[in-house]
Amino acid sequence: MANRLIAARDRFAALHPEQRILINDREWGYVAVGDAGPSLLLIPGTLGRGDIFWQQIEALERRARIIAVTYPKNGGVAEWASDLAELCGRNGLDHVTVLGSSLGGYLAQYFAATYPHMTERLIAANTLHSVEGIASRPPYSSDLNKAPIGELRAGFIRGLGAWRDAHPKQAELIDLLMAEVGGRIPEPELRARLNALKRGPELPHLNLPRDKIATIESADDPLIPPSMREAVRARLKPSIAYRFEWGGHFPYVARPDLYVALLEEQLGLPVTRESWSDGELRAR
Q1: Domain count for the chain
Q2: How far is CA 66 from the centre of its chain?
Q3: Is the pTM here over 0.90, yes or no?
Q4: Could you report the per-residue pLDDT of 16-74, keeping only the tens digit for each?
């Protein structure tokens, strides 16, 4: 049976092929759409290219200017933040709402702290507040430069398989992520993403007003435990904290309509999609 999510993502990728750009000796991939409206920078986690946000991009591309990025094969959090500032500048986005998920959420926090004059709004999603101690936990405890890539990929595949066993209704999502980690994300890029957190800097002080900060989390996120979610909120003190009742670590794929609705709210756009009044998404 065909995987509907993979088919939809592939259709999007065919219509919006990833562009490549060299910034400070690092080659980024990116998808840029829209020519009017608020500006939105989308940063994926470890297991996604820029087009993993295809459902949000399709819903908003006529009402916002959007750049969704794919990480380069070198550099780390500090260098990437500088590159993203330059990428936005080259595309005429002087003020952006920056949303990052997981690894991307950590990078988004660093970007917002380093470039507050460019940050219209920060949305830190399914992410962490510190890299302290991460180097002692798998897969980061491995030698990420020398460990066989098959072993690193296998670790992700085991974790995804366990999630599919526990949540069979999300099998299509897991297959999509399996394809990403199985080779759609090239080896050098995957190693760079893992090293970015293992060797990542602590986050600088964030100098943004509370009304420009939001967080997103999922009650059933297997990678971000409740204590870490609380720590993210304690550090950022968001004006609004969105909480998916289910959606795992990838609610933007698993719950696309709700995710679009919260983005519309954050961007100041009319909310055209599913409301979260049914209790599936709570804002506090």
Answers
A1: 1
A2: 14
A3: yes
A4: 999 999 999 999 999 999 999 999 999 999 999 999 999 999 999 999 999 999 999 99
Domain that holds residue 44: 4-128+202-283
The answer as to whether 138 is a domain residue is no
Q: Measuring CA to CA, which residue among 161, 164, 162, 138 is closest to residue 151?
A: 138
What six digits make up the tokens of 88? Answer: 């936005």
Residue 99: HSE in the Cβ half-sphere, 13 Å Cα cutoff? 24
**23 DSSP β-pair partners:** 26
Distance from C-alpha of 26 to C-alpha of 179, rounded to nearest angstrom: 24
Which residues in the chain belong to E strands, given as ranges?
19-23, 26-33, 39-43, 65-70, 96-101, 119-125, 213-218, 240-244, 281-283
Query: What tens digit of pLDDT does each residue of 177-190 get?
Result: 999 999 999 999 99
Residue 161: inside a domain:
no
Q: How far is CA 202 from CA 78, 183, 198, 199, 215, in A?
A: 10, 30, 11, 10, 19
List all residues 6 or more positions away from 227 whose beta carbon is below 8 Å from its beta carbon.
Answer: none
Residue 247 lies inside a defined structural domain of this protein: yes
Which residues are paired to 96 by β-bridges? Answer: 119
Please, how many CA atoms are within 13 Å of residue 57, restricted to the half-sphere of its CB? 26
Q: Which of 131, 135, 133 is nearest to 110 (CA)?
A: 131
